[in-house]
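Many introductory courses stop at the sequence. We go one step further.
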Amino acid sequence: MKKFIAALAATTALAAPAMAEEISEFRIGILGGENAQDRLNNNECLRVYTEEALGVPAKLFAPADYNGVIQGLLGGTIDVAWLGASGYAKTYLSDPEAVEPVLVKVNTDGGYGYYSVGFARKDSGITSLDDMKGKTFGFGDPNSTSGYLIPSIEIPAATGATMDSGDYFGEVKFTGGHEQTIVAVNNGDVDGGVTWADGLGEWEDGYQSGALRRAVDAGLVDMNDMVEIWKSKPIPEGPVVVRKALPEDVKAKVTELWDTLSEKDQNCFYGVAAGEAKSFDPITHDAYEVIIEARKLKSN
């Protein structure tokens, strides 16, 4: 009988390794795109709620760039993060078993799409991509969907030229993130650039959610000084992902916390969701197949 119990225990351990992993702390990764202190401040309430839900210390990690969060998820040093679609694609292509998408931010209109938005200073006289010919263009982060992947595909289709410096644009440069692009355009360091927005509400507010709204809330930019010069096709909002190796009860509690955050604490939700939105709702891997294929094409 003892041999049977030992064999059963060994079989169970092999069949469900995730259940064998106990956690002593829980680590929340926050994508780059704005300064680290603002990111930490906006997510501090989430950290506190996570600690209460799990009964272990929770910590926030705000790496300088998107890749820091991606590598943290792949290496097991970050347990949950809200990724962009391209960031999720990179994580999945690096290791399909590393994370699983569980939720997506839903906009006030019930959709979960957003846009890559091209913009310039109004006093520059630039009103379209045509006016950007020969000028300096700013991307954000190489692992950003709206700050690089989608515009690097759709803008060349519109201009008939590559995104290489000197081909259509005089110079193409990476600023480091969404906030950096907004500041660079506002300061005249680049003539135009791209960032993300839900496309809902008013331009003057930086739309309802996204990097422009964050920048307006932080007092970094007056949208009346800016003009929209391009907008992508709708992009699927990136997923909240959890590390697959976590115990099932931990994944369930964390998912429930994010899922109910808009009802639990609207102010906290606003900070985590980058502006006005409806909620975080369930999503699966299938929603990101098109972005994964686009990411594959860019890497070839």
